[in-house]
Amino acid sequence: MKQQTRVRVYGGKNGFAASHFLVGMGKCERLHGHNYCVTVEICGEPDDNGVIIDFHDLNLAVSKVCQSLDHRVLIAKDEKRYKLRAGESEVEVIFGEKRFLFPAADCVIVPVSATTVEKISCHLLGAILKELDKGSYTGFKWIEVGVSEGSKQMALCRRELG
Fold first, then answer.
1. Pairing of strands 15-20, 72-76
2. Cα distance between residue 128 and residue 7, in whole Å
3. Reported pTM
4. Which InterPro entries does UniProt cross-reference here (predicted)?
């Protein structure tokens, strides 16, 4: 019988509160926010110590990435349906009849086409892997990141690694 070993972290500091808006999504075009929860699952071969990854290292990486988005306005860098102007002191977004003007320090311009949980989960996956690359973890088969914006809905992004 083939067996897989996986680890999963969730809760605690593995989340963030942020606001955003979604072009073409009706009421979601209005500025609104969520308390996002992030779950990370990794499948791999346990090392000589019997672990896939040290939970402390994984939680630290996830928390660091989440903190970079916490209490910020998330703006999609690659959204083609609006005009984005990011200056040193302010960020302006114009689409249709709407114009948002935010202090630059309150924003994170995310390299995605929309700030949906689907796109954010994939962005977080890449950012978490970059944080973990600083360590010595090489035995991962895949990593999956889930982002929920409510108690009953979550988007998942998985990347095969080995």
1. parallel
2. 15
3. 0.95
4. 6-PTP_synth/QueD (IPR007115), 6-PTP_synth/QueD_sf (IPR038418)
